[in-house]
Specification:
It is a single chain. The chain has 11 helices and 9 strands. The radius of gyration is 26 Å and the shape is elongated. By secondary structure, the protein is an alpha/beta fold. Helix 1 packs across helix 2 (about 40-50), helix 7 (about 180-190) packs across helix 8 (about 195-215) and helix 10 (about 240-250) runs antiparallel to helix 11. About 40% of the residues lie in helices and about 15% in strands. Strand 3 and strand 4 (about 75-80) form a beta hairpin. The strands form 3 sheets. The protein has a 5-stranded parallel sheet, with helices on both faces. A two-stranded antiparallel ribbon has the order 3-4. The protein has a two-stranded antiparallel ribbon with strand order 6-7.
Length: about 290
């Protein structure tokens, strides 16, 4: 992958980096809310260490042929085309299975022997494929393979327990801290030549307030780090803070959008603190007050 100069490491970055650079086969599962940089983290670790990466996005339509390989007709001849999983095995490449909980549970069972790091029998070629040094599997998902109870991640599935057990370690990736997210936003503003430190600070405060309200059950939507980057790019294009906020909040229903915009206005223009008033001192009744 190409190295991104705007990337800021946080969360599980160091642990995942240690796994990938070790060269040891150690499948890892990274779960966490949408838009918080799970896949980007894996990509940038591979970019930093100049390691190749194959990223595969899964969905319900992904089948074994797309992952492992299939037969196809080329110039009148039947040819076997190997899928990304076997290519990664042969070349010692890190395989990123993105949105793995969107894949069909039965289809993913074809990966079980591969997740054990053992030679794989490829029946279409009648060949045993031995994983090359450096081959590893990293999966990212919004859930831990138990489905989405709140309905926020429609299309995610309950995955086979035996399949999940083959991942050696599971990481929980949360949104970055306010300090880290502020750095991410400012880096991106610098990149697009639209640095506004006050706007960046207000964006971070705004997102943090919304996430806390979401965690407390006060709203049904939240602001992701990815949406923060959308806002920065909109600001770079339109040169208008309010328009950038509005356009990037249009994906929400009207009530939520209005509440989010109103909250940003309050964050950006806090009410001034009241001017302190000296306490009134009442003179004793028997004391004459000179005029």
């Amino acid at each position: 992958p190409k190295k991104d100069s705007n990337y800021v490491p946080f969360g599980n970055h160091t642990d995942v980096e240690n796994i990938i650079k070790s060269g040891i086969f150690y499948p890892a599962y990274i779960s966490g809310p949408t838009g918080n940089g799970k896949s980007t983290m894996v990509e940038q670790i591979c970019a930093k260490h100049k390691k190749p990466l194959i990223r595969v996005n899964l969905n319900m339509m992904t089948d074994e042929e797309q992952l492992i390989g299939s037969k196809t007709l080329q110039d009148g001849n039947v040819e076997v085309v190997e899928g990304p999983v076997l290519i990664a095995m042969r070349t010692g490449t890190t395989l990123l299975l993105d949105e793995i909980d969107a894949g069909a549970a039965n289809t993913l069972l074809c990966l079980q022997p591969i997740l054990e790091g053992k030679p794989y029998y490829f029946k279409l070629k009648n060949e045993m494929i031995i994983p090359a040094a450096g081959f590893n599997v990293v999966a990212t998902a919004n859930t831990k393979g138990k489905g989405s109870d709140d309905g926020r991640y429609i299309g995610t599935n309950i995955l086979n327990e035996a399949f999940l057990e083959r991942f050696a370690v599971t990481f929980n990736q949360e949104y970055p801290s306010a300090k880290i997210e502020g750095k991410i936003v400012q880096n991106l503003m610098n990149h697009y030549n639209c640095l506004d430190e006050v706007f960046a600070e207000n964006l971070v405060k705004w997102a943090d307030a919304i996430r806390k309200t979401f965690d407390d059950g006060g709203v049904d939507e939240t602001i992701t780090t990815r949406r923060m980057t959308h806002i920065v790019r909109a600001f770079a294009i339109f040169k208008n803070q309010s328009k950038a906020i509005e356009l990037c909040c249009n994906r929400f229903d009207t009530a939520t959008k209005t509440a989010f915009i109103d909250l940003f206005d309050k964050v950006a223009s806090p009410e001034p603190e009241p001017v302190p008033v000296a306490p009134t001192v009442k003179a004793p009744e028997d004391e004459e007050i000179p005029f």
